[in-house]
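Can't paste images in this forum, so I'm doing it all in text. The chain is below; anyone willing to post the predicted structure tokens underneath?
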Amino acid sequence: MPTWIDACAADDIDEEDVIRFDFDDRTFAIYRSPDDEYFCTDGLCTHEKVHLADGLVMDHTIECPKHNGQFDYRNGEAMRAPVCVNLATYPVKLESGRVFIEI
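Text version of the structure:
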């Protein structure tokens, strides 16, 4: 059964940026778009398992810090080689200034 997890304060993430969130044995990446929306994906690149929170956010993409592959963090789509496997994405909601993810 899906569970909503309190991941961080909304203000913990700068606009057009990403932070890492670890829960149990999993790592997530939480993004704040230029449109002030929040998104969540798996936190590791599907190519080399590098933490995406160390990558560069531009518009609606995250660039992996190791080989510069890119994903659209809104839907997880792999957009530039060497990545070819999409990221899993997770629903996000804001409540009382907090970011919650559904896992």
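The radius of gyration is 13 Å. DSSP finds no helices and eleven strands in the chain.
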